[in-house]
């Protein structure tokens, strides 16, 4: 661990101790003795999206294969976790990503890694969706791209409105996914069929 990281950890641990004291806790209580260190370690993991050196390299392959060129919609689904920038509480859910290739085919495991990278910082769901879609659009240069995120927010469920299991949905579509109504409807239809709830 670098000296700079040690200083950041020390600042986080000091801040957590102050929070514990100010909410009325005893920071010397046995169950809390290592809580500041646990949180500083956790922060390195769940906020790695601020470290550009950890951004995944998105592998692509040529789609210029003559008669075998792929021109159909390709889908990928997965899950994600992030932290709300307004209350620093988790939000989590699922994503559906689809694209119509042009000159490049995507190494599909990289979609999930890209989603996880942009989710690993303080976010709002609207911006998270746009950042992921923009990055994959620029990397792939496809004919069309679509991304939908559906997530539950603890800032909505455990405080404030206290509306349980009321997910929020955000989506971005570019290219043919936006401009061709038939293709857009195909994407949205498959998104809806893929939902588990």
Entry keywords:
elongated; 5-stranded mixed beta sheet; GTP Cyclohydrolase I, Chain A, domain 1; alpha+beta
Structural summary, described in words:
This protein is α+β, with helices and mostly antiparallel strands. The protein folds into two domains: 3-46, GTP cyclohydrolase I, N-terminal domain (GTP Cyclohydrolase I, Chain A, domain 1); 52-194, GTP Cyclohydrolase I, domain 2. The protein is built from seven helices and seven strands. It has helices at 3-22, 35-46, 109-119, 125-140, 154-157, 176-179, 181-194, and strands at 60-62, 74-84, 90-100, 104-106, 122-123, 144-153, 168-175. The strands form two sheets. A five-stranded mixed sheet has the order 5-2-3-6-7. A hairpin with a 5-residue loop joins β2 (74-84) and β3. α1 (3-22) crosses α2 (35-46) and α3 (109-119) packs across α4. The termini are far apart. The mean pLDDT is 94.
Averaged pLDDT, please?
Answer: 94
Second rung of CATH, namely the architecture of the largest domain: 2-Layer Sandwich
CATH homologous superfamily title of the largest domain: GTP cyclohydrolase I, C-terminal domain/NADPH-dependent 7-cyano-7-deazaguanine reductase, N-terminal domain
Quick one: how many beta strands?
7
Order of helices and strands: HHEEEEHEHEHEHH
Quaternary state, please?
single chain
Largest sheet: 5 strands, mixed
Give the C-level CATH assignment of the largest domain.
Alpha Beta
For the record, give the distance between the C-alpha atoms at the N and C termini, rounded to a whole number: 43 Å
Give the % helix. 40-55%
Shape: elongated
């Amino acid at each position: 661990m670098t000296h700079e990281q040690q200083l950041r950890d020390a600042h986080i641990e000091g801040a957590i101790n102050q929070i514990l004291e100010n909410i009325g806790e005893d920071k010397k209580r046995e169950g809390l003795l290592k809580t500041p260190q646990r949180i500083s370690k956790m922060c390195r993991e769940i906020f790695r999206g601020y470290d550009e050196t950890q951004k995944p390299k998105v592998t692509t392959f040529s789609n210029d294969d003559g008669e075998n060129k792929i021109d159909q919609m390709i889908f990928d689904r997965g899950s994600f976790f992030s932290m709300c920038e307004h209350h620093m509480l988790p939000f989590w859910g699922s994503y559906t990503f689809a694209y119509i290739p042009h000159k490049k085919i995507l190494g599909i495991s990289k979609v999930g890694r890209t989603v996880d990278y942009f989710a690993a910082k303080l976010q709002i769901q609207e911006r998270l969706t746009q950042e992921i879609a923009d990055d994959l659009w620029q990397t792939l240069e496809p004919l069309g791209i679509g991304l939908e995120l559906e997530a539950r927010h603890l800032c909505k469920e455990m405080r404030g409105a206290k509306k349980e299991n009321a997910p929020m949905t955000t989506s971005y579509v570019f290219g043919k996914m936006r401009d061709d109504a038939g293709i857009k409807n195909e994407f949205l239809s498959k998104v809806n069929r893929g939902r588990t709830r």
